[in-house]
Specification:
This protein has 230 residues and is mainly alpha-helical. The protein has one domain (5-222). The protein contains seven helices and three strands, in the order ααβββααααα. It has helices at residues 5-32, 43-53, 83-86, 91-108, 112-140, 144-181, 190-222, and strands at 60-64, 71-73, 78-82. It has a three-stranded mixed beta sheet. A hairpin with a 4-residue loop joins strand 2 and strand 3. Helix 4 crosses helix 7 and helix 6 packs antiparallel against helix 7 (190-222). The longest helix has 38 residues, at 144-181. It starts with a helix and ends in an 8-residue tail after the last helix.
Length: 230
């Protein structure tokens, strides 16, 4: 697979999109991280304000390491924000923090796709880390069964990437609506905070596209598509 031209040809669109999305996200975050919000709230305070406006008081908000490593853990009902977001007063920080708070609201409202994504996490972790092992072993030893098993394992990661899209879009939509109504940002500031979320969503689109193209490659080389692996 490492030296297979077909792999690079198929994956090229996804890799290009991923690079564009990553650059756009970092650039947009950097731009609006220099613009303070008028309310003076930090990312952590903004997330708490938005949650309280919806009657949510049982979500823990804590700092975590890593650049843009922000996430909501539905298992512990904990919102973890990177230091760049947790303690910053910028529009970028409150946008990201409120997006993650949107996931907490999804859990509170019983949002189905979030629950499905949580269920898929352990399957996806195993599938994405081990699928290529079975696939390469199948190629090396000419064992189609192993290759096809690898394809099935990776398919779980693809499903996860696809399910992630509505989950992330919905969290951003909730954040955009509630950031203003809860007083986190003014209507004039919403565009700046929203720009960061829009750029970040493109990274999830790129991830889904790359996963689908990788699955297509696996399916072609395993004979599930195209009639063989020649």
């Amino acid at each position: 697979m490492i030296f297979d031209p077909l792999y690079f040809i198929l994956l090229a669109p996804g890799l290009i999109l991923a690079m564009i999305a990553s650059g756009l996200t970092k650039g947009t975050f950097s731009k609006y991280s220099k613009v303070p919000n008028s309310t003076g709230q930090t990312g952590a305070q903004a997330a708490a304000t938005m949650l309280r406006s919806q009657g949510i008081y049982d979500v823990d908000i804590e700092p975590t390491k890593g650049f843009l490593s922000d996430h909501f853990d539905p298992r512990t009902n904990t919102l973890r924000l990177s230091h760049e977001v947790y303690q910053s007063h910028s529009l970028a920080a409150v946008g990201v923090a409120c997006h993650e708070a949107g996931h907490a609201l999804q859990k509170a409202s019983g949002y189905g796709p979030l629950h499905l994504r949580s269920v898929l996490v352990p399957v996806t972790q195993f599938g994405s880390s081990s699928s290529y092992i079975f696939f390469i072993l199948g190629m090396l030893f000419h064992m189609p069964v192993l290759m096809k098993f690898g394809v099935l394992l990776f398919a779980a990661a693809v499903v996860f990437s696809i399910v992630t899209l509505p989950v992330e879009w919905d969290a951003s939509a909730r954040a955009k609506k509630l950031m203003v109504s809860s007083g986190v940002v003014t209507p004039m500031e919403l565009d700046g905070a929203s720009a960061v979320l829009n750029a970040a969503f493109l990274t999830y689109v790129a991830s889904a596209v790359t996963a689908l193209l990788t699955l297509l490659y696996y399916a072609l080389r395993s004979g599930l598509l195209g009639g063989g692996d020649d």
